[in-house]
Amino acid sequence: MENNKYLVLGGTGKTGRRVVQRLEALGHEVRVASRSSEPSFDWSKPEGWEAVLEGMDKAYVAYYPDLAVPGSKEAITKLVEVAERTGLKKMVILSGRGEPEAQECELIALNSNINTVVVRVDWFMQNFSEYFFLDPIKAGVLAAPKAETKIPFIDLDDVADVALKALLEDRITNEVLELTGPDLINFEEVVEEISKATGRDIQYIPVSIEEYTQMLRDHKVPEDFIWLITYLFTNVLDGRNASTTNNIEIILGRPAKSFSTFAKEIAATGVWDVAIPETAGE
Ligand SMILES: NC(=O)c1ccc[n+]([C@@H]2O[C@H](COP(=O)([O-])OP(=O)(O)OC[C@H]3O[C@@H](n4cnc5c(N)ncnc54)[C@H](OP(=O)(O)O)[C@@H]3O)[C@@H](O)[C@H]2O)c1
Q: Which residue from 23, 48, 86, 229 could staple onto 53, CB 3.0 to 4.6 Å apart?
Protein backbone atom coordinates (compact mmCIF):
# COMPACT_ATOMS: atom_id res chain seq x y z
CA MET A 1 0.00 0.00 0.00
CA GLU A 2 1.14 3.59 -0.70
CA ASN A 3 2.43 5.24 2.47
CA ASN A 4 0.99 8.72 2.07
CA LYS A 5 0.00 10.61 5.18
CA TYR A 6 -3.46 12.18 5.00
CA LEU A 7 -4.64 15.38 6.65
CA VAL A 8 -8.34 16.14 7.05
CA LEU A 9 -9.10 19.79 7.89
CA GLY A 10 -12.53 19.91 9.50
CA GLY A 11 -12.07 16.19 10.22
CA THR A 12 -14.70 16.16 12.97
CA GLY A 13 -17.37 17.82 10.79
CA LYS A 14 -20.12 16.38 8.60
CA THR A 15 -17.99 15.69 5.51
CA GLY A 16 -14.54 15.46 7.13
CA ARG A 17 -15.67 12.77 9.58
CA ARG A 18 -16.90 10.63 6.69
CA VAL A 19 -13.63 11.08 4.78
CA VAL A 20 -11.62 10.14 7.90
CA GLN A 21 -13.72 6.97 8.42
CA ARG A 22 -13.14 5.88 4.84
CA LEU A 23 -9.37 6.52 4.89
CA GLU A 24 -8.95 4.74 8.23
CA ALA A 25 -11.04 1.78 7.07
CA LEU A 26 -8.50 1.33 4.27
CA GLY A 27 -5.64 1.44 6.80
CA HIS A 28 -4.29 4.88 5.89
CA GLU A 29 -2.55 7.13 8.39
CA VAL A 30 -4.81 10.15 9.01
CA ARG A 31 -4.30 13.38 10.93
CA VAL A 32 -7.72 14.72 11.96
CA ALA A 33 -7.44 18.48 12.34
CA SER A 34 -9.74 21.10 13.83
CA ARG A 35 -9.65 23.54 16.73
CA SER A 36 -9.95 20.61 19.14
CA SER A 37 -7.07 18.54 17.71
CA GLU A 38 -3.46 18.42 18.78
CA PRO A 39 -1.79 20.21 17.08
CA SER A 40 -4.78 22.46 16.80
CA PHE A 41 -5.94 23.92 13.45
CA ASP A 42 -7.90 27.19 13.61
CA TRP A 43 -8.83 29.10 10.44
CA SER A 44 -8.37 32.35 12.38
CA LYS A 45 -4.84 31.46 13.58
CA PRO A 46 -2.58 30.90 10.54
CA GLU A 47 0.52 30.91 12.76
CA GLY A 48 -0.42 27.36 13.83
CA TRP A 49 -1.02 25.88 10.36
CA GLU A 50 2.56 24.86 9.51
CA ALA A 51 2.72 22.45 12.46
CA VAL A 52 -0.51 20.81 11.26
CA LEU A 53 0.57 20.49 7.61
CA GLU A 54 4.15 19.41 8.31
CA GLY A 55 4.81 15.86 7.04
CA MET A 56 1.41 15.54 5.35
CA ASP A 57 1.18 14.32 1.72
CA LYS A 58 -2.49 14.78 0.83
CA ALA A 59 -5.26 16.81 2.41
CA TYR A 60 -9.05 17.07 2.41
CA VAL A 61 -10.08 20.65 3.16
CA ALA A 62 -13.51 21.68 4.46
CA TYR A 63 -13.38 25.41 5.13
CA TYR A 64 -15.46 26.78 7.98
CA PRO A 65 -18.01 28.30 7.94
CA ASP A 66 -18.26 28.74 4.15
CA LEU A 67 -16.00 29.79 1.27
CA ALA A 68 -18.54 32.56 0.54
CA VAL A 69 -17.78 34.48 3.75
CA PRO A 70 -15.45 37.49 3.81
CA GLY A 71 -11.88 36.41 4.64
CA SER A 72 -12.05 33.03 2.89
CA LYS A 73 -9.89 34.11 -0.09
CA GLU A 74 -7.14 35.33 2.23
CA ALA A 75 -7.37 32.09 4.24
CA ILE A 76 -7.13 29.84 1.15
CA THR A 77 -4.26 31.94 -0.24
CA LYS A 78 -2.40 31.49 3.04
CA LEU A 79 -3.24 27.78 3.26
CA VAL A 80 -1.87 27.19 -0.24
CA GLU A 81 1.30 29.11 0.66
CA VAL A 82 1.87 26.97 3.77
CA ALA A 83 0.98 23.77 1.90
CA GLU A 84 3.46 24.55 -0.89
CA ARG A 85 6.15 25.23 1.68
CA THR A 86 5.54 22.01 3.61
CA GLY A 87 5.43 19.91 0.41
CA LEU A 88 1.78 18.87 0.25
CA LYS A 89 1.26 16.88 -2.97
CA LYS A 90 -2.52 16.86 -3.38
CA MET A 91 -5.46 18.77 -1.97
CA VAL A 92 -9.17 17.94 -2.29
CA ILE A 93 -11.16 21.02 -1.39
CA LEU A 94 -14.89 21.13 -0.65
CA SER A 95 -16.69 24.02 -2.30
CA GLY A 96 -20.24 25.35 -2.68
CA ARG A 97 -22.05 25.29 -6.02
CA GLY A 98 -23.25 28.65 -7.37
CA GLU A 99 -21.26 30.77 -4.89
CA PRO A 100 -19.07 33.26 -6.85
CA GLU A 101 -16.79 33.87 -3.83
CA ALA A 102 -16.28 30.12 -3.41
CA GLN A 103 -15.39 29.84 -7.08
CA GLU A 104 -12.71 32.53 -6.56
CA CYS A 105 -11.26 30.42 -3.73
CA GLU A 106 -11.29 27.36 -5.99
CA LEU A 107 -9.18 29.24 -8.54
CA ILE A 108 -6.62 30.21 -5.92
CA ALA A 109 -6.15 26.53 -5.08
CA LEU A 110 -6.30 25.34 -8.71
CA ASN A 111 -3.66 27.90 -9.76
CA SER A 112 -1.24 26.77 -7.05
CA ASN A 113 1.60 24.27 -7.41
CA ILE A 114 -0.44 21.68 -5.57
CA ASN A 115 -2.48 19.12 -7.47
CA THR A 116 -5.96 20.35 -6.54
CA VAL A 117 -9.31 18.65 -6.98
CA VAL A 118 -12.37 20.76 -6.20
CA VAL A 119 -15.41 18.87 -4.99
CA ARG A 120 -18.10 21.48 -5.71
CA VAL A 121 -21.37 20.40 -4.20
CA ASP A 122 -24.97 21.49 -3.88
CA TRP A 123 -27.04 21.62 -0.66
CA PHE A 124 -26.52 18.71 1.73
CA MET A 125 -29.42 16.34 2.44
CA GLN A 126 -27.88 16.12 5.92
CA ASN A 127 -28.88 19.76 6.58
CA PHE A 128 -32.18 18.09 7.61
CA SER A 129 -30.63 15.36 9.78
CA GLU A 130 -27.38 16.79 11.20
CA TYR A 131 -27.61 20.57 10.87
CA PHE A 132 -29.86 23.63 11.12
CA PHE A 133 -33.00 22.07 9.64
CA LEU A 134 -32.99 19.10 12.08
CA ASP A 135 -34.81 20.90 14.93
CA PRO A 136 -37.62 22.26 12.72
CA ILE A 137 -38.19 18.77 11.28
CA LYS A 138 -38.34 17.32 14.80
CA ALA A 139 -40.72 20.11 15.82
CA GLY A 140 -42.97 19.20 12.88
CA VAL A 141 -42.84 22.62 11.14
CA LEU A 142 -40.24 23.73 8.64
CA ALA A 143 -40.54 27.43 7.84
CA ALA A 144 -38.15 28.52 5.10
CA PRO A 145 -37.99 30.99 2.22
CA LYS A 146 -37.67 30.19 -1.48
CA ALA A 147 -40.62 27.80 -1.72
CA GLU A 148 -40.38 27.74 -5.51
CA THR A 149 -36.68 26.91 -5.78
CA LYS A 150 -35.77 23.40 -6.91
CA ILE A 151 -32.59 22.08 -5.31
CA PRO A 152 -30.60 18.94 -6.25
CA PHE A 153 -29.84 17.95 -2.62
CA ILE A 154 -26.80 15.70 -2.26
CA ASP A 155 -26.02 12.89 0.16
CA LEU A 156 -22.81 13.26 2.17
CA ASP A 157 -21.85 9.62 1.86
CA ASP A 158 -21.76 10.18 -1.91
CA VAL A 159 -19.64 13.32 -1.38
CA ALA A 160 -17.23 11.44 0.89
CA ASP A 161 -16.96 8.51 -1.55
CA VAL A 162 -16.01 10.93 -4.34
CA ALA A 163 -13.58 12.84 -2.09
CA LEU A 164 -11.91 9.54 -1.14
CA LYS A 165 -11.43 8.58 -4.79
CA ALA A 166 -10.09 12.05 -5.56
CA LEU A 167 -7.56 11.71 -2.74
CA LEU A 168 -6.45 8.21 -3.67
CA GLU A 169 -6.56 8.06 -7.46
CA ASP A 170 -3.95 9.73 -9.67
CA ARG A 171 -6.34 9.77 -12.65
CA ILE A 172 -8.41 12.43 -10.80
CA THR A 173 -6.14 15.42 -10.99
CA ASN A 174 -6.36 19.25 -11.21
CA GLU A 175 -10.06 19.43 -11.88
CA VAL A 176 -13.44 20.55 -10.62
CA LEU A 177 -15.98 17.83 -9.86
CA GLU A 178 -19.43 19.40 -9.77
CA LEU A 179 -21.71 17.10 -7.80
CA THR A 180 -25.46 17.02 -7.21
CA GLY A 181 -28.06 14.55 -6.12
CA PRO A 182 -30.37 13.01 -8.75
CA ASP A 183 -33.65 14.85 -7.94
CA LEU A 184 -34.65 18.49 -8.25
CA ILE A 185 -37.03 19.14 -5.36
CA ASN A 186 -38.26 22.09 -3.33
CA PHE A 187 -38.74 22.41 0.44
CA GLU A 188 -42.37 21.33 0.30
CA GLU A 189 -41.38 18.13 -1.51
CA VAL A 190 -38.56 17.55 1.00
CA VAL A 191 -41.06 17.77 3.85
CA GLU A 192 -43.47 15.44 2.03
CA GLU A 193 -40.69 12.84 1.65
CA ILE A 194 -39.73 13.09 5.32
CA SER A 195 -43.40 12.90 6.41
CA LYS A 196 -43.87 9.78 4.28
CA ALA A 197 -40.69 8.15 5.61
CA THR A 198 -41.41 8.92 9.27
CA GLY A 199 -45.19 8.59 9.25
CA ARG A 200 -45.33 12.01 10.92
CA ASP A 201 -47.36 15.01 9.81
CA ILE A 202 -44.69 17.63 9.13
CA GLN A 203 -45.69 20.98 7.66
CA TYR A 204 -43.79 23.30 5.34
CA ILE A 205 -44.55 27.01 5.74
CA PRO A 206 -43.22 29.39 3.08
CA VAL A 207 -41.89 32.61 4.60
CA SER A 208 -40.07 35.66 3.27
CA ILE A 209 -36.33 36.06 3.88
CA GLU A 210 -37.12 38.94 6.25
CA GLU A 211 -39.53 36.78 8.28
CA TYR A 212 -36.99 33.96 8.34
CA THR A 213 -34.11 36.13 9.60
CA GLN A 214 -36.42 37.61 12.25
CA MET A 215 -37.27 34.06 13.37
CA LEU A 216 -33.56 33.27 13.65
CA ARG A 217 -33.01 36.45 15.69
CA ASP A 218 -35.91 35.53 17.97
CA HIS A 219 -34.17 32.18 18.54
CA LYS A 220 -30.92 34.03 19.43
CA VAL A 221 -29.02 32.55 16.49
CA PRO A 222 -25.58 34.26 16.21
CA GLU A 223 -25.47 37.17 13.75
CA ASP A 224 -22.68 35.71 11.59
CA PHE A 225 -24.73 32.56 11.02
CA ILE A 226 -27.78 34.70 10.15
CA TRP A 227 -25.59 36.57 7.64
CA LEU A 228 -24.52 33.31 6.01
CA ILE A 229 -28.03 31.85 5.85
CA THR A 230 -29.41 35.11 4.43
CA TYR A 231 -26.61 35.15 1.84
CA LEU A 232 -27.37 31.56 0.82
CA PHE A 233 -31.13 32.09 0.56
CA THR A 234 -30.70 35.35 -1.36
CA ASN A 235 -27.77 34.62 -3.65
CA VAL A 236 -27.63 30.88 -4.11
CA LEU A 237 -31.19 29.56 -3.77
CA ASP A 238 -32.46 31.70 -6.64
CA GLY A 239 -32.80 28.84 -9.10
CA ARG A 240 -29.24 29.07 -10.45
CA ASN A 241 -28.54 25.53 -9.25
CA ALA A 242 -31.73 24.00 -10.59
CA SER A 243 -29.92 21.39 -12.68
CA THR A 244 -28.32 18.04 -11.94
CA THR A 245 -25.02 16.50 -12.99
CA ASN A 246 -24.27 12.78 -13.38
CA ASN A 247 -20.71 13.06 -12.09
CA ILE A 248 -21.35 10.87 -9.04
CA GLU A 249 -22.43 8.01 -11.29
CA ILE A 250 -19.48 8.58 -13.64
CA ILE A 251 -16.94 8.66 -10.80
CA LEU A 252 -18.39 5.99 -8.51
CA GLY A 253 -19.99 3.73 -11.13
CA ARG A 254 -23.31 3.74 -9.24
CA PRO A 255 -26.20 6.21 -9.04
CA ALA A 256 -26.26 9.08 -6.55
CA LYS A 257 -28.61 8.58 -3.60
CA SER A 258 -32.13 9.93 -4.04
CA PHE A 259 -33.81 12.06 -1.39
CA SER A 260 -36.49 9.43 -0.79
CA THR A 261 -33.85 6.75 -0.08
CA PHE A 262 -32.03 9.17 2.23
CA ALA A 263 -35.30 9.97 4.04
CA LYS A 264 -36.12 6.26 4.52
CA GLU A 265 -32.62 5.51 5.84
CA ILE A 266 -32.61 8.44 8.27
CA ALA A 267 -36.16 7.75 9.45
CA ALA A 268 -35.05 4.21 10.34
CA THR A 269 -32.29 5.58 12.62
CA GLY A 270 -34.83 7.43 14.78
CA VAL A 271 -33.06 10.79 14.38
CA TRP A 272 -36.36 12.43 13.35
CA ASP A 273 -38.41 10.82 16.15
CA VAL A 274 -39.99 13.15 18.67
CA ALA A 275 -39.56 12.41 22.36
CA ILE A 276 -43.02 11.99 23.91
CA PRO A 277 -43.07 14.00 27.17
CA GLU A 278 -43.95 12.05 30.30
CA THR A 279 -47.43 12.87 31.56
CA ALA A 280 -47.33 14.74 34.88
CA GLY A 281 -48.26 12.56 37.84
CA GLU A 282 -47.41 9.23 36.15
N1 LIG B 1 -24.41 22.68 4.29
C2 LIG B 1 -24.45 22.65 2.96
O3 LIG B 1 -25.50 22.39 2.36
C4 LIG B 1 -23.20 22.91 2.17
C5 LIG B 1 -23.27 22.86 0.77
C6 LIG B 1 -22.11 23.07 0.02
C7 LIG B 1 -20.90 23.32 0.67
N8 LIG B 1 -20.85 23.36 2.04
C9 LIG B 1 -19.57 23.64 2.67
O10 LIG B 1 -19.26 22.70 3.67
C11 LIG B 1 -18.21 23.28 4.48
C12 LIG B 1 -18.39 22.80 5.89
O13 LIG B 1 -18.08 21.44 5.90
P14 LIG B 1 -18.78 20.41 6.86
O15 LIG B 1 -20.27 20.60 6.76
O16 LIG B 1 -18.20 19.09 6.60
O17 LIG B 1 -18.28 20.94 8.28
P18 LIG B 1 -19.11 21.12 9.61
O19 LIG B 1 -19.95 19.91 9.88
O20 LIG B 1 -19.75 22.46 9.57
O21 LIG B 1 -17.96 21.08 10.69
C22 LIG B 1 -17.04 22.09 10.87
C23 LIG B 1 -15.66 21.50 11.04
O24 LIG B 1 -14.73 22.57 11.05
C25 LIG B 1 -14.18 22.67 12.38
N26 LIG B 1 -14.16 24.09 12.71
C27 LIG B 1 -15.15 24.89 13.14
N28 LIG B 1 -14.69 26.15 13.32
C29 LIG B 1 -13.40 26.14 12.98
C30 LIG B 1 -12.37 27.12 12.94
N31 LIG B 1 -12.60 28.38 13.29
N32 LIG B 1 -11.13 26.74 12.55
C33 LIG B 1 -10.87 25.46 12.19
N34 LIG B 1 -11.78 24.49 12.20
C35 LIG B 1 -13.04 24.82 12.58
C36 LIG B 1 -15.05 21.84 13.30
O37 LIG B 1 -14.32 21.26 14.38
P38 LIG B 1 -13.96 22.06 15.74
O39 LIG B 1 -15.25 22.59 16.25
O40 LIG B 1 -13.32 21.02 16.58
O41 LIG B 1 -13.00 23.13 15.35
C42 LIG B 1 -15.51 20.73 12.34
O43 LIG B 1 -14.51 19.76 12.18
C44 LIG B 1 -18.32 24.79 4.31
O45 LIG B 1 -17.18 25.25 3.63
C46 LIG B 1 -19.56 24.94 3.44
O47 LIG B 1 -19.45 26.00 2.55
C48 LIG B 1 -21.96 23.17 2.79
A: 86
